[in-house]
Amino acid sequence: MQHFTIVTIAEKSADFRRVLWTGEHSQLVIMTIPPGGEIGDEVHEENDQILTFVAGTGEARVGGEVREVNQGDLVAVPAGTRHNFINTGVNPLVLYTVYGPPDHADGVVHHTKEEADRDEG
To answer: DSSP label at 102?
Structure first.
């Protein structure tokens, strides 16, 4: 069994992306977006994604809609939907996300968005 105190783990991570767990059909990832930063405009053709925000404030842009996101919010992004999440606050925007099926290499850590873009570009 894998057990995570997910909010605590996510809030303690300064990494842009850290894969915590990968199963056959889904994957758990924590992310920290610095003030003024963003995940980046993207589409996952084969992956549904559920994002839960644990700290900070931001803007969700999903399928042409824009909404503010705060601690405790959850956003579901169906496969094939263009999306981006932007930190609009003065503190890090911290979240955990579940991909189904997995989207990243098991155990991968990207310290910055630039590192993630380089590795996955």
So the answer is: -
